[in-house]
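Internal ticket - ligand job 217, erythose-4-phosphate:
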Amino acid sequence: MKFFVDTADTAEIADLAATGLLDGVTTNPSLIAKSGRDFIEVTKEICHLTHGPVSAEVVALDHAGMMREAEILRKIADNVCIKVPLTIDGLKTCKKLTADGTMVNVTLCFSANQALLAAKAGATFVSPFVGRHDDNGFDGMDLIRDIRLIYDNYAYETEILVASIRHGIHILESARIGADVITAPPAVIKGLFKHVLTEKGIEGFLADWAKTGQSIG
Ligand code: E4P
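stdout (structure tokens):
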């Protein structure tokens, strides 16, 4: 399963990239606003921090406008992935861009039928938002199960990119189901490293090591 980080904070991206586990980055207009940085400039910087896909989202709502924005965004770097909303115009744009060899992430997916449409439009990634789905009284992980089943039934190549992740259980379940990619905030990814017994174990080993009076090197 690939790990993407969901942020426009370049210090966080660099930190995670150094662990070697980062396969890509997703951003959205809210995350760009939170960074306080210029969209093009920060996207360019992110594209240098990872070789993996970097999702940059269009804000136009019509196909022509989305294509205009995508033209600008895809010139930033070869690893830019254009993010479009799951609407009719979004899927028209998806079809056109992927036919040209540009990666597309279809975002704001909340139903398995929507995911089916994204696959038929040739999306590189589809982003079902599990956290927001849970927040609205649905089971986000059931959505991922349904999409996996449908994509496997027809051997669709669109990758399931589990988005709007809130905690480690979302990641564990994504791996169990066989999702292709997860994107999560830096704090959630960093939380995966932690275990109380790991910390207790380190403490115990260091206490015993101190008794030896030795040092390494
Ligand atoms: C995914 O690409 C989105 O940027 C993101 O996961 C949305 O998450 P949120 O529901 O925490 O805003």
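Auto-summary: The radius of gyration is 20 Å. The CA atoms of residues 162 and 182 lie 5 Å apart.
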